[in-house]
Amino acid sequence: MRRLFPHPALSLALVVLWFLLVQRWTLGNLVLAGVLATILPLLTSAWWPERPRMKRPFDFAAYVLIVLWDIVVANFQVARIVLFMPRDQIRSAWVTVPLDLRSLEAITLLAGTITMTPGTLTADMSACGRALLVHALHAPDPDAVRDEIKARYETRLKRIFE
Amino acid sequence: MMLVVEWGIAAVLVGGGLFALIGSYGLLRLPQAMQRLHAPTKATTIGVGAALLASSLGDLPGGGAFSAQEWLVAAFLLLTAPISALFLAKTLILRGEAGDTLPDTRTGRPWATLEQSPPEPSPEPPIPDHPVK
User: Fold this and answer.
1) Structure pTM?
2) Cα of A1 to nearest chain B Cα, Å
């Protein structure tokens, strides 16, 4: 079983995704979804050897809602900077964010979250994977940016994944 | 009631369009390459998101069904936008066009994009067949 479905959650997600895509509830589509849910995880499992453990799925749902809300807020903040702030007053800065997370999936999520939320962008990672390089569009105080990322997102991800 | 929904959808569409416009304007206005990366990753997300929301609910006032495909588009947008932004940023860093000097990683290793590939391990010295006299 483990060998046929290396990522059960991924297989389930593929079935749901297929039905959302075709929007028709027929047996034929269920068979097709089942075939896809078996083949795709098998073909890609070589690049994804470990199975991510999500300890608190409800916390993850809350995390998604927080991030979506932050994305909306981020849009207004960036729009204001783009439209009204004089060019020479935009204080862009590089920020090094040391990582406490070790789970690869959690770090990927954190990097994606940083890119999608208020005025920050993940640009690189240290070669050992212990720090992220973040570019802030307007950050008069770069340390505050780092502290907010760690407090608002990283601690939540750490609770969910580790 | 349906009129309210229709007006709501129209407002979402116009608002999203405005954000997409602002994002494009940011591309023109911001002076540094790294700053320009911010505009499309943020403002465009809500622009596309609003268009998808309107499209998903758009058939409701006419008695049509709620459509789920738009939510898939939104999900894949959220998954892929950070990755394309990351690759653009890494390219800028590699070409030395990322502006100011980068801060230290404070981990003892450089940033992944800038790390030189480790030197090839030198081949083992051949073991002589006969002990050297």
Assistant:
1) 0.82
2) 29
